[in-house]
Request: fold
Amino acid sequence: MRKMCACFFVSLIWGLAPAQDVTANPDVAAAQRVFDAWMDAQVAYRGLPGIAVGVVSDQKLAWARGYGYADLAAHTPMTPATKFRMASHSKLFTATSIMQLREQGKVRLDEPVRTYLPWFQLKPSEPDDPPVTIEELLTHSSGLSREAGSHWSDYKFPDAAELKAYVAGTHAIYSPQVRWKYSNLAVSIAGQVVEAVSGEKYADYVQRHIFDALGMKDSSIDRDVPGLAVGYGRRMPDGSREKKPFIDAKAMGPATGVTSTVEDMAKFVSLQFRTGSTVLGTGSLREMHRVRMMENDWTRGNAIGFIVERTRNRIYVGHGGSYPGYKTQTLMQLDDKVGVIVLANGDDAVPADIAQHLMQIVGEAVAKAAPKKPGVSWDPSWARFAGLYRSAGSDTAVVELNKELVMFDPIGANPERQSKLTPIGNGEFRLEAPTGGSTVGEVVRFVTLPNGTMRMYTGGSYSDRVR
Reply:
């Protein structure tokens, strides 16, 4: 059975992956084999039902694979086309909807929620608290309670009327902007804003303006659709797993109701790397990726919808998700335009860890193999720009490395903290630095003065070489 399943996956992946320039790379192929071997063992020894994964390279699903089963009883193989409850990834589609409406001038992020939902008269945490805004709903900085009742215990999610009644009878846990506090209730209310402003049901709006626009043909909201993986609870001490029923999230759908696949989610991931999209403008996408609220320990933060975290000195944008019987995770490295997707139909799968390994093993190999924009070739004559430059306030050392110029403060305590001079043509360079306090991004050029002195212009300032 294992051999038959492997053949099925290979033929499926061939059809999925037009990015042959990346997948044919021997380092990428080797990384895939390493990840395959690890995942096969994880599924077998941990007794996981099934997992589907994908690696996105810019606008292409570069590689995708399924492990285990979508249905244990029927021995239905897991594939990248298998449907999953995406859980909290739903929040990304709610945030995208709000940003679309904002681009149309129908919503302001800094506007109080009650401007659009007059029934939203929340009891504040403190008497002088300002009203909760739309942005605070999407960034988990509203101070609202996490949930709207006991729905994670009894699986009885509230409808719109029950959601409104819950809001009327509760109060904020914290004042707005006091701390990051994850809230399914807040994003569910944002979904109500989408309905009120657009005049469409939330599910209809997302279907028309996001799913259809991106070609996400296998995505839906709170529908028990064919091809949906069976959801299983955690593995119990006797090895058994509870089979979870289909659960309608109702008015909590904007926070947790989306169903999708690896193939469809790859299209949404590719949107994040795009410029000039008709789905959402480049400026709005950049706003959605920028941290707005930090966790109290500063390990991660929330952008508009997205979670942003720093791991191994890299910044990743994405989200996780948990719904009875399903666990999901996406991670995106925006600079490399690489994203990974991990979807599981077992409550103990821990896809966040799997996604990190997928990114480090296959994702980083894909990033290295992806075609790079041609740069300006090194000119050996640029070595003459190296030296010690001095202005009235500072010294700067320009050093030639291996066909590259870098600069740093020779008086400072950290010579390893260097800025790079990237050639941009016509003998000019762009300053690239790890932090933004310097003249990062500005043009650097070198001019020989009539008296023979080499002068370095950095932005609007200059310094002269003294040796």
Remarks:
- The first strand starts at residue 50 and ends at 57.
